[in-house]
Amino acid sequence: MKEVLLVGFGAVGALCTLTSKSLSRSGIARVTAVARSNYGIVRGKYSLCLTTRRSRVCNTVASAADQAYDYVVVTTKAVPELRLTPEILSPLLSPEYTNKFAQPTYLLLQNGLNVEKDLYNAIRKLNQGKPSIVCAALYVGTNLAAPNVVVTNDLVNHFSQRESLFLGIYRHEDHTTSANSADETALLQDLGSIFQRGGSAITIVPEIQRVKFAKNFWNLSFATFATLTGYTVPSLFRSPPASKDEQCNPYLYPITAELVQQHSIPAIKTTMKELLNRDPDNSHVPSMLLDARRSQPMEVEVIVGEVHIDMLYALLLVKQNQILGRMMAQ
Q1: Are strands 29-34 and 2-7 parallel, antiparallel or unpaired?
Q2: pLDDT digits (tens, 9 = 90+) for 130-146
Q3: CB atoms near residue 124 (< 10 Å)
Q4: What is d(CA 290, CA 61) in angstroms, rounded to the nearest whole number?
């Protein structure tokens, strides 16, 4: 039986713990879930469900740091302006814990790029060997509509030939290795088996950063525009013209138009299919837009700041700074 600690009981954390595609349903994992802001609701409403699956719920990481874990799954949002991941996990990195227990493998189910760096450096300082961190790209359409209500949709079904969860080894400052070692393969298969037996579809990849970049591009393209406009993704698309004779394209010189059709349009469509692959009729509310509507801090730095899309970054910082300012004033 694998011991798994799940930190963060929002939409993704709840899916990992309670739904038909959950770690606790795998039969090979005992899950300890840390629910901070919604601990009372989770404890009261789902305590029987968790107990019958040989799992438990705690209100802090400190209260859960009473045993060894094989895996720590982090589903909190990465908002470095508020707290870094090592700060959230500090009880597991403290001398009181590390003197008793070995460090687990950490799985970061977080949006954005380079979310692993701070945790990697914090574990390195413990002098307990090379940090073991698994990266993930998670494709799932889910929102926490209320403290005890998780809404999901068929977003994943709109991805051609894609599974919902990609897993790969985090290799710090290593941008050339493109194959898993035997030990890395064994680790990923062991971790992946828990998700698979719980009902989730996973894909193990030899180099995860490319997959994470594609997922981040997807977030960057849609979540940011939705947040700045205040409208969900369908508003970014337009319906095709009612008549084939209706002019809806700018005029191009015939030779230029032929080159555009021959080279530019196929390239754009291929990029859209590979990186975006989004159904315009999907009604999912991007989490960044949902945070903005609720005046909650957004994942601006890790999604937009890491790729230096300066105009989007600057505009989103205006929203983010106002949200953080109101929080500080309370």
Answers
A1: parallel
A2: 999 999 988 765 555 55
A3: 13
A4: 26
Instruction: Note the pLDDT tens digit of each residue in 86-109.
Output: 999 999 999 999 999 999 999 999
Report the predicted TM-score, pTM, of the whole model to 2 decimal places.
0.80
Tokens of 72: 């720590």
SS3 for 136?
A: strand
Helix then strand then coil, % of the chain, to nearest 5: 45, 15, 40
**Mapping DSSP to helix (H, G, I), strand (E, B) and coil, where does residue 61 land?**
helix
CA distances from 58 to 73, 87, 325 (A): 14, 17, 30
CA atoms 289, 310, 217, 261: torsion sign:
positive
Q: How would you classify residue 153: left for phi > 0, otherwise alpha for psi between -120 and 50, otherwise beta?
A: beta
Domains defined along the chain, listed by start: 2-206 (3.40.50.720), 213-238+251-329 (1.10.1040)
Question: Which DSSP string do the residues of 236-285 spell out, in sequence order?
Answer: G--PPPSSTT---S----HHHHHHIIIIIHHHHHHHIIIII---TT----
Q: State both tokens at 154.
A: 């068929």
